[in-house]
Amino acid sequence: MKLSLRDTIKGVIGKTLLTFIFVISMTMFFILYPLLADPDYYKNLILESTYKMTQLNVNYKNSEPVFFPFPGIELNEVTVSKADDEIIHVQKLRIEIYYGVFVGKPLELRKIYLNTGTIEITREKDESFPLFEKLSEQSLDEPNLSSKNKSKVQIDNQEESPEELYFSKVFVNLVNQIEIKNITILFDDKLYSRKINLYLWGTTLHIDHDLRNIDFYLYGKLNNEPITLSVDFLFAEDKLTYETLRLEGEFQFQNVRGIDLHDILIIFTRGDLRFVKTSGTIPFYKRDESKIYAVVDQLHVQDLALKDGKTFADGHVSTLINYDSNEDKLSFANIIVEWKGKSKLYGSGYVNFLKPPLSPTVSFEGTSDYLDVPSIIKVSKIWIDPDFEKSILTRGLPSTGYVNRMNVYLNFHFRNLTIVDFKADSLKLNVHYAKRKLNINRYELKVYDGEVIGTGEYRWLQPVGLTLKGEIKHVLIAPVLSDIFKISPITGSIDSEFVILSPSDTEDGLVDNLQIVGNINAKNGELLSYTNILKPINSIGSVINLKKIDFSRATPYNELKFDFQYANENIEIKNFALKADGIAGSGGGKIGFNKAIDMKFTIGFPGVAGKALKLPIIYRGTYGVSSPFIDPIWLGSVYAGTIFLASPAGAAVGGIAGSAMSDYVNRAVENVTGGIQKSWKGIKSIFGGKEEEEKKEENTKEKSP
After folding, report:
1. Mind listing the pLDDT tens digit for each residue in 208-249?
2. Which segments cross the bilayer (predicted)?
3. pTM
4. At what angle do helices 5-37 and 41-54 cross, to 10 degrees?
């Protein structure tokens, strides 16, 4: 009998359903039978297999089997330990396996899930980690290898280089998926006296053996500050190499402290980076065989410090970092550093790591919108001369002689510079370092409508020290002094040539041994306030025919020249020459950084009297407090001359002499009223001025009613 199409379809469906039911029934039988015969069968099987793989003991309060979505066990109040040492305590541990174990395949862990627990890690002062050392120990229960097997392992290890790693071998015994939730890792670091709390709210690790892919995700808090890390690793081949690696990832963090990174930051011995805080987001990726990139976008950096522990800096850093294995070069592009109110810098550069006999190169160039030089110097000093032996992460690195082999090229064009109160429009700087010698090929400073240009060098080899040569052209004096000292006692423009020397290779030594030799040529200005060295002349101008020249406010000059030498906080001035309308001056002396001044000048004047007289002026005492005065010995000699010449004018000058020695020249001049009577009073003021004044006061009292 021929069946209809409808009956045929029903028959096929029915047979399929029966087959499916049979398969399901048999599967459930194989799954459930061991449980019915021994309820702890799968639990024991999983725990035994876990122990064989990890050598870890799992103790728990109670358990229950899990069937869906994958079979396994769920344990509560779990303690994981090795030997008698507890490693972790969690409220819940779930282990899932693949179904293949039910049809005779070896047990394979699919997933481990941990929920709510604590892991305690300690580092001792001897830099040891007891927990890690315990985990690395082989269990006493591990079967001993036979001599034949040991020999085989040794041969295999000799034949296979440690660099020859393969995905299929390295990850073969690792669980495919780990999920961690609400776990706290407590790190007690006795070496650096710190405690780190890493809270893992949600962390997953997934390994795909077929795709050779590892996916890692972490979300939690580091010392109560949020932190997120996600990375996707992919290997183009089974062989694990840098060339076969591909990755995409992102790291987000807030207020990560320097003390948390002390293991690496400790190498920067000139700074104290325990207090620094950083916040930001850094994506990174590697999409080909050679180049890996990291994008630093507005990384917030706060509270840097030098050894004094005083924190400073609040800025943002952005750059694109790229390492190219083919060129063995680390590049920095689109660098932006902004410290609001202090500096904003732009730049780019690279560092390569060529091996001997080639010379590695460091090259950077940059510019600025504005730049506070002392602040940048403070930041730069932190990173100079790191000591790699300080950190266990860098200790023992083989020496490459990098410092002695490398070439450093720096080319900067900074704008709007500030050095304390000193301001400059721009600075061009070209520097080359090689073989422990820093060559300043050229510097060009635009400042106060003029410029300073020059060259120099700094040597770490004999003869050590700094040599800097320069030339100043047409720099305005008044704004320089106004910015630095808040007063402008000198005006005009200045030209100069100078040489700066310091035979030292330390920071303190550079300052202590600093020497400067040069010359000054100032033009078309005035000496004001306490620099007005000709002010005393104004007091005797009427006597020696200088009525038309008034020095009470300033000493005007057409040209002011002198040579100078600085050493040990003292400036020695030689060959001083002043030229003004009808006036010429010469002199020299010393000025100390303690404001002590000892200088002498000789001034020649116009007119008949001026040609006959050379007026000596002394400036002695405290610079800015004391006033210049006419040499009293000279005034005395003028007075003596009047005795023999019987000159009324000479007598008047003689009167000034006594007053100059007791007070200030200006006050003496006020007592001179003219004629023979004035001369007589002037003479008496030298020998008995005090007595005359007392008699005058007594007569005044007697006449009073």
Report:
1. 988 999 999 999 999 999 999 999 999 999 999 999 999 999
2. 12-36
3. 0.77
4. 70
